[in-house]
């Protein structure tokens, strides 16, 4: 049986490259922006959001495994994103380095920690998805009419 979970976010323009991001709950709203000189740096940019998603997912997956193993520990994460130009001169995320720091682990729980270290990455939805490559379909509408659609989309461009 196949299960599907969905998430939806809406980005509303606030001027320039700044957008208000609306999610399922109003208290989750945030502002995103591009750094200067393009934007004003009023919020995180997409690369920082990807780093956030990866770091949170990895730390949460490790914490979950440790909790299931009845191992008390604090998990902190730091993520560095390397952005560089590709062969066509386009900016791309070239590499991500995530560091997780465990603290407060009882030395007697080291076997449980070692077991979790072998498992946790496979349960991180975001990291596993990014590593595989995520299919992205893009549709653009102009005044309600599709003007750009993924290949094979039945709503042909006008």
Explain what the structure shows.
The protein is α+β, with helices and mostly antiparallel strands. It folds into two domains: about 5-45; about 45-130, K homology (KH) domain (GMP Synthetase, Chain A, domain 3, 2-Layer Sandwich). It is built from three helices and seven strands, in the order βββαββααββ. The strands form three sheets. A three-stranded antiparallel beta sheet has the order 1-2-3, with no helix packed on it. A two-stranded antiparallel sheet has the order 4-5. A two-stranded antiparallel sheet has the order 6-7. A hairpin with a 5-residue loop joins β4 and β5 (about 90-105). The chain is elongated. The two termini are about 40 Å apart. The mean pLDDT is about 90.
- What is the helix tally? 3
Helix content: 25-40%
Number of domains: 2
Q: Do you know the CATH architecture of the largest domain?
A: 2-Layer Sandwich
* CATH-defined fold name of the largest domain: GMP Synthetase, Chain A, domain 3
CATH-level-4 superfamily name of the largest domain? K homology (KH) domain
Number of strands: 7
Low-confidence stretches: none
CATH class of the largest domain: Alpha Beta
Average residue pLDDT: 92
β content, as a range? 25-35%
Largest sheet: 3 strands, antiparallel
Which value, in Å, is the CA radius of gyration?
20 Å
Order of helices and strands: EEEHEEHHEE
Q: Please, what is the oligomeric state?
A: single chain
Overall 3D shape: elongated
Q: What is the structural class?
A: alpha+beta
């Amino acid at each position: 049986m196949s299960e599907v979970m969905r998430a939806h976010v809406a980005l509303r323009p606030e001027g320039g490259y700044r957008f208000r991001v609306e999610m399922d709950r109003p208290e989750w709203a945030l502002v995103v922006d591009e750094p200067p000189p393009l934007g004003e740096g009023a919020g995180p940019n997409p690369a920082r959001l990807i780093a956030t998603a990866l770091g949170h997912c990895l730390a949460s997956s490790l914490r979950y495994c440790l909790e299931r193993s009845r191992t008390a520990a604090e998990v902190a994460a730091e993520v560095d994103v390397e952005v560089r130009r590709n062969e066509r001169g386009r900016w791309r995320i070239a590499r991500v380095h995530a560091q997780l720091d465990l603290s407060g682990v009882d030395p007697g729980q080291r076997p449980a920690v070692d077991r979790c270290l072998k498992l946790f990455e496979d349960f991180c939805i975001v990291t596993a998805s990014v590593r595989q490559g995520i299919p992205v379909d893009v549709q653009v509408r102009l005044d309600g009419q599709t003007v750009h659609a993924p290949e094979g989309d039945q709503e042909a461009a006008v």
